[in-house]
Each structure stands twice: as structure tokens, then as C-alpha cells.
Design brief:
The structure is a single chain. The chain starts with a helix and ends with a helix. Helix 5 runs parallel beside helix 6 (about 150-165). Helix 9 links the parallel strand 6 and strand 7 (about 230-235). The strands form 2 sheets. A 5-stranded parallel sheet has the order 1-2-3-7-6, sandwiched between helices. Helix content is about 40%, strand content about 10%. The protein has 10 helices and 7 strands. The model has no long low-confidence stretch (mean pLDDT about 95). It is α/β, with parallel strands linked by helices.
Length: about 270
Amino acid sequence: MEYEALRKIANDIRINIIKMVSNAKSGHPGGSLGAADIVTFLYFNVMDITKENAGTNDRDRFVLSKGHASPLLYAVLAEKGIIPKEELLTFRLLHTRLQGHPDMNELDGIDMTTGSLGQGLSAAVGMCLANKLDKNDHRVYCLIGDGESEEGQIWEAAMAAAHYKCDNLCAIIDNNGLQIDGKIEDVIGPAPFDEKFRAFGWHTINVDGHDFAQLEKAFAEAKTIKGKPTCIIAKTVKGKGVSYMENVADWHGKAPNAELTATALKDLEGE
């Protein structure tokens, strides 16, 4: 798909993220908006997931390790036609399938139940090993938060992935520099990610997470790497596209009121 069409889809996804979180009066808009370009590119230009194969093993898989960014995942699944767009406004409501964190038992196309931070990469490693045992050539992609990488389980999984030569695994770090309580460097500071993942035996690539050309090159390169997993460190802007949310940690996990929702939609619909 051409970049201009991808930009339109990513913007529509951002609009739906704002509508979902605003309607629910809760959710995590900042990281969802910031990673929208990455996940849009994955679902429309890299992974082979469709409405028809979403409930099968015969496709690439995506693990949203930072499960609080569920509005992004649901909005992407709607754009792919896997769930109805009208269902998006049931996000976080009573009895909805669209829980605050993804539940693989609720929807086809959700490959792992996540939300407890640090666990997604371990699941992705298991999927990669299963694919190898089954002689299944499909790949597994795992989106990890930079703040989430303060969890020790991430590094245990990273060590295992390299040990088992999971070259069918591509992790992506959503490197926006912020977490719920401020700048990552002021909390623990797991960066530099490239040096650390290389030390664990991974191939690493640094990109601008909003540049489709760089993302295209990085994902293509990842497919050529043999004998080790790949980590793409994607520099992103938390709250991307909404003027008052960009690079503001306070918008990690709260919903805008009616006035701020209108401003956000004006920012996005004006593009």
C-alpha cells in the first residue's frame, strides 16, 4: 500500500482512538496515538492477516505487550474488517468484547491476552518456537513499551529468544521516552535499547516510528536476518497528532473531556 493511503488509515485510526477513549471516559490515548503508524504499517504492509484467516494459525501474529494500548489494536482490527467499526464505541463498556486490555478469548485477531506489563515478549518467543517445531514459516511481531522494558521479564525473554535463535521474531520498542509517572530516564531508564539488545544477542535497527519509508526498510531487513531475533527501536511521539497530548506524560492514561475531545478531533480531522 502506498504511503499516502497508509497515512490516511493511520489518521482514521487516531480519530477512532480519541472517540473510543472519550466515549468510555477512560483508557490510554497517549501510547495508542504514538504507535499508530507502526501498527498501521505492520497490519497493512507487512503481516498477512485478513478477516478470513484471523481465527487461524496460518498467518503472522502480533502481540501487543503494552496491552493498555488496546484502543489502537481494536481500531486497526476494525480498519482490517476483522471487527465492525460500530463496535468500537463499546470500548470499556459493560459486557463489551473490547476490554480495557486485549482478551484473546473475545476476538479473532488478538493473539495474546496482555495488560500485565512485561509478559508479551515471553509469549511471542513461545509462538516463535512453536512455529519452528511446526515448520510454520510465519513470523511473530511484538510491540513493547519503553517504560514496560523496566520489567525484568522482558530481558529474560530477550535472553531466551537469542538462545533459541528465534529469527522469526521481530520486537518493536515504542520508544517515546515517557511513562505514566514521567520521563523514563528519570524513573529507571532502560535505554540505550540498541546496545542492550545487541548484548543479549539480537540484531537491532533504529528508526523514526512515524516514517513509513524507514519502517518499510527495517521490517524488510528483519526478514533477512538469520540465527537471531531482531529488535526495531522506533522513536515515537506520545500522543502523536493531538496538539495538547504530544510529549505529555499526563495523557498516558486518561480520557479527554468533551471540550478537549473536540480539539483533538479538530487536530486530526484537519490534517
